[in-house]
Amino acid sequence: MKKSRIRNIDQGAIMKLNKILKNTLLIIFACFALSACATSKKTTGQMQGDVYTGTDTVEYLASGVPDRVFFATNESVLTTASRETLRKQASYLRKNSKITIVLEGHADERGTREYNLALGERRANAAKDYLMTYGISSNRISVLSYGKERPVDSGSNPLAWSKNRRSVTVKAN
Amino acid sequence: MRIFVKIIIFLILIPSKSFSLIEVDITRGNLDPLPIAVSPLSIDENSRQNFEKILKKKNIGEEISKIIEVNLKTSGLFNPLNKDAFLQAPDIANLKPRFEDWNLIKAQALITGKVSYTDEKLRVEFRLWDVLAGKEMVALAFTTVPTNWRRVGHIITDKVYQRLTGEKGYFDTRIIYVAEEGPKTKRIKKLAIMDQDGANNKFLTLGNELVLTPRFNPTSQMVTYLSYFRNLPRVYLLDIETGTQEVVGDFPGMTFAPRFSPDGKKIIMSFAKDGNSEIYTMDLENRIVEKITNHPSIDTSPSFSPDGKFICFNSDRSGYQQIYIMKSDGSNVKRISFGKGLYGTPVWSPRGDLIAFTKLHKGKFYIGVMRTDGSGERLLTENFYQEAPSWSPNGRVLIFYRETKTDDKGQGFSAKLWSIDLTGYNERMVKTPTDASDPSWSSLLSN
Prior knowledge:
The structure holds two protein chains of two kinds.
Chain A: H1 2-42, E1 47-48, E2 51-52, E3 60-62, E4 65-66, E5 68-70, H2 80-95, E6 101-106, H3 113-133, E7 141-147, H4 158-164, E8 166-171
Parallel strand pairs in A: 6-7
Antiparallel strand pairs in A: 1-2, 3-4, 5-8, 6-8
Helix pairs in contact in A: 2-3
Chain B: E1 8-12, E2 34-38, E3 42-43, H1 45-55, H2 60-75, E4 78-80, H3 90-95, H4 99-104, E5 109-118, E6 121-130, E7 135-144, H5 149-165, E8 174-181, E9 188-195, E10 202-203, E11 211-216, E12 222-227, E13 234-239, E14 245-247, E15 254-260, E16 266-273, E17 276-283, E18 289-291, E19 299-304, E20 310-315, E21 322-327, E22 334-335, E23 342-348, E24 354-361, E25 364-371, E26 378-383, E27 385-391, E28 397-403, E29 415-421, E30 428-430, E31 435-441
Helix pairs in contact in B: 2-5
């Protein structure tokens, strides 16, 4: 009697163990699936370092003239691609001398509100300075920082944040 | 709204000093809150009927005692006992408590009182008793307009808190904050104000323009905040009693991060121009503007020490966001944050000894405190995103806001107010009708 009872208990325990193993396997598979998704996003080449290089959110001032440039975390330095975009903007603005613009500087959500307001202002001014060196008069340009108040992508992930760290050139008239 | 209501305290019995009386230690995390019985304030039938007519509350005595109970419970220092266990009727308890009865239900302190309708006014008397010593600790009475009944509950809580902890309370206070609605990419923000316990919520702006970072004047009912009125981000001054507002100063660019000086006579803020943010003050009486910092880096989030002699602020002059202090004239700039990570939003405690801050380290946000020389850093709470601590007027509690992470589709975003004790205990969400951010705690409305 005693022996068989012990055996029963053992079998119960083994069944439980089997169940646990199955579940963990399922979880491990799920993890693989998730990480596969995550890496596939990274490999689409929409970011270089943490600067956005895609075109999802980009609009155009005119054909071939993108309206925005992107920044690295906490940075206001213009990348090579940003400088190219701004040169295109400058040439467009030189041809259309009546257009005035607002440079809207933005930050991602991973910073304190007040610092981000200052950072947005600094980014927009980096774009302004560059446009000015390409012949655009400062009285055609005004600067407006939104800090982290107006994200274009509401996601909480590095790609979304990279799209939100930007300076957007908006026609004011 | 009449803010400064005349509260006539006409009966103060100075409690007999005795070291045997109960005390609550608020300097440590209180894991063993003091059991306290809040007997409903007794009321005679005639008064009850009068108040029911005026305030639409069936029993205003019970309502006031509920406010006291909720306040005491929220503080984390007290454990209000279940009223079902009370043996003594409220009116008799107020005359002379049978301490054995209250002892039996393990109450260590007892609040009793009486409400009456006198000359169209609300007259309230209350007593705080030490059950173990069998002694009266406080007895007070005051008269006010009936619509002030909630404030009566808060003032009583402040008196009880002060008597039992030895420090001023923070219950007869208000919170100004930014109410948020709509999708994350197109948030609508309004200024809102409410009592410290969430009652009497009121919106102060309509949401037509973006508003941020409201802060109370510590000495009056004025508020300073940032508004994007006509797409020009500027610091404004708002009188919440009259609703009048004006731009602060005449700056050719964005002004932001405003705060009052401790005497309420100056506003300190940042002004951004050509990619450089500097700290300025403006005297509200003579309108004189002074430039305080002078550095090509970002200098922002300034906050005065309570004696007005120093300013703590946020700067990235070292390359990254760190906390600095300087004399109020801008001299003797000294970095005080040296821990790992980035530091922002320094706010000087009204007690003067600590600076609260937000810290970002390895993708997590922390609310913490450090001494004014940067030593003794203590992190109180960790989360995906939280920032902008504001001190309770007694410097014992911090209120801040917290945002949630969105899912893959960018859904599930929310922003809420939270509070935590300086001890790191008693973390709780502060309920608001909408999403909320940027809270600022007022001074005590009455003393």
